[in-house]
Design goal:
single chain; alpha/beta; three-stranded parallel β-sheet; 9 helices
Length: 277
Amino acid sequence: MEASIETRTIDGKAVAAELRAGVAGEVAAFENQHGRPPSLTTILVGEDPASNVYVNNKHKACAEVGIFSSDERLPADTSADYLAGLIDDLNADDTVDGILLQLPLPDGLDDDELCGRVAAEKDVDGLTTLNAGRIVQGRPGIVPCTPSGVMILIEEAGVELSGAEAVVVGRSNLVGRPVASLLLAENATVTTCHSRTRDLAEVTRRADVLVSCVGVPGLIDGSMLKPGAVVVDVGTTRGESGLLGDVAFDSVQGVAAAVTPVPGGVGPMTIACLLAN
């Protein structure tokens, strides 16, 4: 099929930079009001190399906007009771504004239980049951960082979500479910697809907005799109050639109205939205 649509690449790096600049201004206002900068404490249990990189990147990002950050590093054999006690202490510390428990935790520690112990108002990842429930109910709360970034990029693409057909491929608690709830709150008609969906392409071809977040490289190609759709690719899988998205980027050119790249799309938004939270 001959390309007939000029496909715009949505620049997540540029949008994230604007968001960070706004956060820096809010940080300065907070410090002026409270006599100290806002503070984040991260907790990293074990020696997972990827988690170590993620935590270091978060501290670097905090420093760039003036947020004070501290780091609790614990051995992999840390007990659940000790970790729970540390979280309780941080919840009670008025000088700690945000708590981030880096996931995944080592074997033997329950991610959901320990994340749920973080006070909802300090839950910068938006993963507690209370914050997740607020999203489902359409009430104000702290929104998980990646879903928040997805919604900002959809807005950047100029989509009128009210009445639009939105398809989310993926139903994880981290991304798929909250994205679907956020789209529904904007009055989109939302379909969630997953590994049991019959004829995925038939469903995705209805989408005015398509969000894919399953981590299967090249799952979505141009033949699966409605012409003029806006496509947000959350998938990140590390391959021999670098990071790969769920969307076959070259294939959707000339079909999609706009698409986020991997890397450089949703990824930069995740940490920017963490800073905003």
